[in-house]
Specification:
mainly beta; 24 strands; disordered N terminus; Cytochrome Bc1 Complex, Chain D, domain 2
């Protein structure tokens, strides 16, 4: 089944650093190379002193429409949901600790929402390259499985095989270790490992329960797994590629000859962000193996294994200074023994999921945190007749609840002569265009056309003098003088709007 995609942007970071969301996102919530670096490090590469500028509270709300209905479980014919509200507490306590606590209050018009991310990370292992997370966090998997701009997420990481539904994406309770080298020039890779259990709303003793379902207190559906990902990745390069997988055990219902389904999954993926005139592309291939999928009650003397496969490819292209993105997923194919509409014990060969087309748009002048998405999907999982389109529309809004402590009041404009602007033009071409593009629309570095509307001149100068993280090179004072920094800032603000 195609999974709904969360609005996962965290504008607290953008507000604290006084930058646009495009610093970390190709289009919210999809992450670019730098955003993937920050997310993999559990925010540990962010500067705790800078994060003190913002109060770490974020409110998110979204409105959805689906032409086939079935969004509101209490009113399946209703095609709109107006109440999707959650609160995030997210930030960096110090150079040693970071955290994210997420609680929804309404989900698809239903109150008493669930707990999403709920973790704390210690970030000083292996000379600050290691990050130990405890709580409920994203599984080690391709970033697009959890952070992608389409309204419909990928079906492959949650493929169902008989009674067992995989959980290769999303958040699960457990303990994880991420190794993300800060010296990425010499160590251009990252590795993520986790031991995860079930996903109750709040932490309790059922998370790692694997009792025999025939014994007292047995828990049908209990699932625990070791999950991993190893990938080539650099925050200053638009390419990430790697392998991911899981090895685990799942408790089947009573009536099965054998009560346990031992499973494993292995996949490969590659993602390239859009750069200049080249569209972005994502591709992955995944294979899963289950030792025992039934069909159980239909013939409880049968123990049947199964192998399933899935793959997909998607292309995306930005327009209008990065404020509109078109995403085209021509195919996502799944095959294997899956439960049919007749019930879990009647298995059928899975059908491919064809066609997801999304347009995402924003207007940073109106609101930097408001996004509109329109999607047309053709697939069995859209709740329409197979092969027929389903239309979805979403309006997502995420904003910090308070302004940063460092004010964004505009500074009095300095007087720049034509000679100053020409000098800024020359310095930009020499030191900045290789990453941000001659037209300022980005490449390795982010799009600069939103800077005029989101920062003051003083803040633009501060960003050049003290760049975010370790990706943007520090050109001041070794390469650029005080006057040249002012000239570059003036050129960028005067030219890229």
């Amino acid at each position: 089944m195609q999974q709904p995609q969360k609005a996962a942007a965290l504008p607290t970071f953008a507000q604290a650093y006084q930058v646009d969301c495009s610093m970390c996102h190709s289009m919210v919530p999809a992450l670019n190379a730098y955003g993937r670096y920050v997310q993999s490090s559990a925010f540990g590469v962010l500067d705790a002193r800078v994060m003190e500028r913002a109060i770490p509270l974020v409110m998110r709300e979204s409105i959805s429409y689906r032409s086939t209905g079935k969004l509101d479980a209490q009113q399946p014919a209703y095609k709109f949901t107006e109440a999707n509200v959650s609160l995030n507490l997210v930030g960096v306590l110090s150079n040693a600790f970071s955290y994210r606590l997420e609680q929804s209050f309404y989900s698809n018009n239903i109150s008493n929402g669930t707990t999403g991310h709920f973790w704390v990370s210690y970030n000083q292992l292996f000379h600050a390259d290691g990050h130990l997370k405890i709580g409920k966090f994203d599984a080690p998997a391709p970033p697009a499985f959890s952070y992608w701009q389409d309204m419909s997420g990928f079906s492959s990481p949650s493929i169902s095989v008989g009674q067992h539904g995989y959980a290769l994406s999303g958040d699960r309770w457990g303990v994880g270790l991420d190794y993300v080298p800060r010296n990425y020039q010499k160590q251009p890779y990252k590795a993520e490992f986790a031991y995860v259990g079930n996903s109750p709303v709040l932490y309790n003793d059922t998370i790692y329960s694997m009792s025999n379902p025939y014994g007292p207190g047995g828990s049908t559906g209990s699932d625990k797994a070791y999950e991993y990902k190893v990938a080539y990745a650099r925050p200053d390069k638009p390419v990430e590629a790697g392998v991911y997988g899981a090895v685990g055990s799942y408790v089947l219902p009573s009536g099965y000859l054998q009560p346990i389904d031992n499973y494993n999954a292995t996949g490969v993926y590659a993602q390239r962000d859009q750069v200049k005139m080249f569209p972005g592309v994502l591709a992955f291939y995944q294979q899963t193996s289950d030792s025992n999928v039934g069909p159980g009650k239909a013939s409880n003397q049968l123990v049947q294994s199964a192998i399933s496969r899935a793959w997909s490819v998607e292309f995306d292209e930005s327009f209008f200074g990065g404020n509109v993105m078109l995403g085209v997923r021509p195919v996502e194919y799944l095959s294997g023994l899956q439960a049919s509409k007749a019930g879990y014990d009647t298995l059928q060969t899975g059908k491919p999921h064809y066609g997801v087309f999304d347009i995402v748009a924003r207007d940073p002048k109106f609101s930097p945190y408001l996004y509109l998405t329109i999607e047309s999907a053709v697939a069995a999982a859209t709740n329409a007749t197979y092969g027929q389109p389903a239309w979805r529309v979403g309006l997502k809004w995420a904003v910090p609840l308070f302004r940063p402590f460092v004010g964004r009041e505009p500074t009095p404009p300095a007087t720049f002569t034509p000679a100053d602007l020409q000098a800024g033009t020359d310095q930009y071409a020499q030191n900045c265009a290789a990453c941000h593009g001659a037209d300022g629309k980005g490449g390795i570095g982010p799009n600069l056309h939103s800077i005029y509307n989101t920062t003051s001149l003083k803040e633009t100068v501060a960003l050049i003098e003290n760049p975010i993280g370790v990706v943007m090179p520090r050109l001041y004072p070794a390469t650029l003088t005080d006057a040249q920094v002012q000239q570059v800032a003036a050129y960028v603000r005067a030219t890229f709007r």
